[in-house]
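ok so I'm stuck.
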Amino acid sequence: MPFNNPIPDRKPPDKTSMGVQGLVQAEKVVQIALVLPSAVLIGWLGGAWLAGRLHQPWITLAGFMLGSVAGMVSAIRMAIRYGASPKAANKDENGSDKGSPGGQQ
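replied:
not stuck anymore, here's the structure
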């Protein structure tokens, strides 16, 4: 089977939309980079507060670990979603293809 070249776009994207797309991609990377430390900090502070209330020092470590796991899961899910394809990431962000199989909610 011979290879067919893709049909080129008739109108090339303008420079302003390319600049905005670059900023959107940078924001996605920053969001992934910040979700893990913030989840760990929230888990640690929540565990420390709960440990002070219940007088159980091990709860601080449990909160730290829970925040670490939650942050890793969230960061990995975001990286997979944003790394899949631009069309799939836009569908997820818009909420059009979430829920039951087939895209119906």
